[in-house]
Amino acid sequence: MLKKILVVVILFLLVAFIAKDKIIEVSSENIFKHILGIRLDIGSMDVGLVRPAIFIKDMKLYNPRGFPTETMAVIPEVYVRYDLIQVLKGKVYLEELKFSMQQLNIVRDEQARLNVNTIKPLESKEEGQVVAQQEQRKIPEIYIANLHLKVGDVYYRDYSARSEQPTVKKYEINLDEEYQDIKDPYTLVRLIFVRSLTGTDISNLVDIPMSQVQDVMQKAYSTGKEAIGAAAEQTSETTHTVIDKTSSVLKEAAEGFGGLLNGQGRETDQ
Q: What value does the mean pLDDT take over residues 180-195?
């Protein structure tokens, strides 16, 4: 009898181990769908047991029904390192989030509606933390200590002229930035879209609440200035002239960190 019970327990644990990734994957898709208000699919997910990390591959965000193109965003890789103790307490505490978005498709349909304006964090004009508190019954509390954000290309397709082919522009964003202390998922989503669209012709078409996003960006800017100052203080006098020139360049980069990035749009036949 004991052997039978032991076999059942082992089989149960084996099935749970095999199915855990799929269970968490489906749960994650449902949480993201509730946060965003639109469909999100995850290609594959690997959840570590010993190491508290999650690897997500081939994630896609889809447009709402009625828009001419299907995919809004292509996200090849997401890496998450979380605090297991906090998760067990019911709070999603992410020590590190690496978010790499290869392509973002902004679409304006024949009725001049913009696809991104249908996303809940962009559609809602309330502050991110306020909305997150209101939604706590449906989604867990989420905090991100460190965000590494990469964005490749942004495409803008305008069907509002109702011609046979839409006007298409491609923006090579090539963004690679780091941010800290993001307190809710709405601020995260808004930050991603703000930094993706900054410097493009599309930015003035999207009205995004900026208060908490600006706070996050300002902290990143301040951190950059402190790092430059610390490096300069540790430099010997013999290399002072070289460092002065280098520091000047770095300071200019840091001062532009929280501001607008210049983007170049060009028409393309894609």
A: 93
